[in-house]
């Protein structure tokens, strides 16, 4: 059974004078441990889809099921990591990563030690008493990942989490996130504008069109790429082949978007 089932999801934003359909007939089935990426032109509803999956907004119609059950309150089942780290500047790193556990009343000694162990695995074992202002952007994003994983969510949502970082830091963090999610067998959904990032990290890639947002094509990443870390995958011949395919399809979609 799939861990996440998205069935015929539609979403329309209403204003006093207009109704704008952001998503139309989104249906996907995702297995446990899969890494899925969403690509598409601006305005295709990628972030709206993540917000619906997270339970932050309700779809106009359609259902979201986790482990076969339609769950209204998804708190604790889903972790959400954004482009900005949103760490509280007046709290230490340790206090920041334990915040989710406290909110969810899971602040046991076992869970606290697990979170601190995760921090150490991210090569941040000596920063727990420091404050966010004392860390680099890449270090803060690693802290944000630990905070997200500390509550042990079933599904991780990633909304362009690396886009604000310099390229070298981004590549290093891709590898670290890839290894961590594989180690803990986490299911992840990534929204990105970076074709290379999607190929290097994913098992499957979904391409969406805009106005309204709808899945128009999917790509299965070759097993040769899925078996290696993102930085190494970027050097593989099959990476370039798939990049070119997706680039051409994305160009077609963007051309249609600008002419409508």
TrEMBL record:
Query: Does Amino-acid biosynthesis appear among the keywords?
Result: no
Residue stretches making up the ABC transporter domain: 4-235
UniProt superkingdom? Bacteria
Keyword ATP-binding assigned to the entry: answer is: yes
One MF term in the entry's GO annotations: ATP hydrolysis activity
Any Pfam family from its record, for instance, is ABC_tran
What keyword terms does UniProt attach to this protein? ATP-binding, Nucleotide-binding, Transport
- Can you say what this protein is called? ABC transporter ATP-binding protein
Organism of this sequence = Calidifontibacillus erzurumensis
């Amino acid at each position: 059974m799939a861990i996440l089932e998205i069935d015929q999801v539609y979403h329309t934003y209403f204003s006093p004078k207009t109704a704008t359909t952001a998503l139309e007939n989104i249906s996907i089935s995702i297995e446990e441990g899969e890494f899925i990426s969403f690509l598409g032109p601006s305005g295709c509803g990628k972030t709206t889809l993540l917000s619906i999956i997270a339970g932050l907004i309700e779809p106009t119609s359609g259902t979201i099921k986790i482990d076969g059950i339609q769950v209204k309150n998804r708190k604790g089942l889903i972790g959400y990591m954004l482009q900005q780290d949103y760490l509280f500047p007046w709290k230490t790193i340790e206090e920041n990563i334990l915040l989710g556990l406290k909110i969810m009343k899971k602040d046991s000694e076992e869970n606290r030690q697990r979170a601190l162990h995760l921090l150490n695995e991210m090569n941040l074992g000596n920063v727990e008493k420091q404050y966010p202002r004392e860390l680099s952007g890449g270090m803060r994003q690693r802290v944000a990942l630990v905070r997200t994983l500390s509550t042990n969510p079933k599904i991780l949502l990633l909304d362009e989490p690396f886009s604000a970082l310099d390229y070298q830091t981004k590549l290093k963090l891709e590898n670290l996130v890839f290894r961590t999610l594989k180690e803990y067998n986490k299911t992840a959904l990534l929204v990105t504008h970076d074709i290379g990032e999607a190929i290097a990290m994913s098992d499957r890639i979904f391409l969406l069109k805009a106005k309204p947002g709808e899945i128009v094509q999917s790509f299965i990443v070759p097993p040769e790429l899925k078996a290696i870390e993102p930085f190494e995958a970027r050097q593989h011949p099959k990476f370039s082949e798939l990049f070119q395919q997706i680039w051409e399809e994305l160009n077609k979609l963007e051309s249609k978007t600008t002419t409508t």
